[in-house]
Amino acid sequence: MLYLLPFLIMIGIKGVKRILKSIIKLRYYTLFMTIFFFSSINVGYTINWHQANGNETQTRFSHEHILPPLVPKWTNRESSNQFPVIDGHTIYVTSTNPLKLQAIELTSGKVKWEYTLGGSKQLPPLARDGIIYVGNATHYMAIQDLNTHPKVLWSVPLVTGTVPSTVFRDTIYVSTGIGNYTAIDRRTGARKWGNFEPKSSHPVAIGEGRLYGASDSDVFAYVDNGKTYTTVWTRSFWTTGKVTQPIYKNGMVYVGFNQDYYALNARTGNVVWRTRLPGNITEASAIGKNFLFLNIANKTVIAIHPSNGNIVWRTPLDILGAPLVVNDTVYLASNKGLYGLSTQNGTQTFTWHRSAHHSRYALAAAKDFIIYTRQDHMIGFLPHNKNIRVMIDGKEQTFNRIPKIVSGRTLVPMRALFEAFDANVSWNGATRTVTAKTEDTTVELTIDKTEAYVNGKLIILDVPATIIDSTTYVPIRFISESLEKTVTWDGKERIVDISSVKEYPSQKLIVNGTVVRDDIKVTNYHGTPTIHADPIFQYLGGGVQYHLGIGQIIATVPNNSIVFDYSKRELVPNLYTTTVDGKDIFIKYLHVVNNQIPGKEEFHLDLTFFQDAFNWTVQWDREQGIVNIKYN
């Protein structure tokens, strides 16, 4: 209610008194409720519903990371529907003959339970937190999923239509049999108001506290005042045709009408831009992170820039269903199969052909699955390389939950990753902070915040740690590199390869105060710094000779030769020994880079070798990038 303060100051004390008197007389009730509604809503509030029509903004966009190519995982020929709904690990659909609600396992496609709805007409369901809202032409009801069977929570008489409903907070906007909308309390089924005019032929979209609907030739916005509604604006096109499903995003309402596509100011209904299309728009459109996506009648898919209406790309494709955007891929269905296009340029990234003669196709996305429905069956698709694999020093890791890709970054279950790195992990529930400690590194992350700390130094993350399905996920590259690991990503095979070898390629080598090299390589190998030794032996007036065929490396210095046995190259601590001036020297790590390329070999030794063999003082300043050697 603090948002009312500027309004009250503006109208003054006398104005407040007038309004209070009017409220008592119920003359300005609608005005007061409108102001109260706007003062109390959270404009950024959005439920990311995994259903064919997306969330309440009707964007048909999913944040899931389901990368093509896809392969069919299962087929269910007992169920079909134009509007599948996914909640948790369950798909909910209504089917006919007889009219029934089905709960289907997402991972297997098997029917968990069925509930006979009765009636003669199906209203596509909504689902949230295990409760399904569905109609059967004469009643609207809430049904709880108890895993093995359903339970009806409430049922109210209502002549329902066939247009999908929309939910916002605790209100469901249900289409009626005559094309109007009724507002229902989703907790009790009590009707808040009904018979909304004008008639809407599409689910309403919701944004900034307003509801946006469309009839055959009109687009309109109205405000839900709790017990009634108030029309804010109407945009009429005055010609024969049909307006497509409204979409709301970032203060704009997007609709298509015949061969034109419009962006309307969500507050006023004024036209911001209009784009002439090469054909009539035939289905609901979708909007992703960057572009709008339209399917038009001349068998073309088009991407439009939402800020100016410019056509970005067009791809010839015969599509019968509305597009579904899943992160960076726009998925489309037709009687010839399922397709995936790049959202950036429209190139085809995935094709699954299966000819059929149906008129209804629908898509939904959740938890690694794309659900593709036809009139007579449903298919669940998974990415061909579904799981991201994580390798640490050549060993594949096993996680209790699969890694995820979020905004281009790989996230993995926190505890399993830290345990693989032998790090001690602690959790502060009050601050939602994760702390991981190794011998010389402390990493701190806070859930859903991009600020992280490594040994007290602030680091800004691209993607924060987050909680998904009750599991804490952390960005694997940031954690690994903070703990001195090297990370590489194989996008084709979807493998994260982590090595305990961390390279520092451009270090400065100083010997007795003289800069010898400014590009020497230091490698932190399993916590032990090793250095490219060839330049050091060369500076001493010697060099390195490679006899890898017989497993030997000979390093020469004035008046001495040191033989290193390279035949035992299972890089195990203290496995190597050599003799220097009659003294046995243990070597922690010895390895050769480019050992298959003659003339390009690099001989790496741990820094402590030079201390033990020659009594030198060797210091490596990692922050400054300097290796400092001193000897007499």
From TrEMBL:
Signal peptide positions (record): none
Pfam family, one: Cu_amine_oxidN1
Source species, domain of life: Bacteria
Domain Pyrrolo-quinoline quinone repeat: 182-374
Alphabetized InterPro entries for the sequence: Cu_amine_oxidase-like_N, Mao_N_sf, PQQ_b-propeller_rpt, PQQ_rpt_dom, Quinoprotein_ADH-like_sf, WD40/YVTN_repeat-like_dom_sf
Domain Copper amine oxidase-like N-terminal: 392-497
SMART domains reported for this sequence: PQQ (SM00564)
SUPFAM superfamilies documented for this protein: Copper amine oxidase, domain N (SSF55383), Quinoprotein alcohol dehydrogenase-like (SSF50998)
Protein name: Uncharacterized protein
Organism: Anaerobacillus alkaliphilus
Lineage per the UniProt record: Bacteria, Bacillati, Bacillota, Bacilli, Bacillales
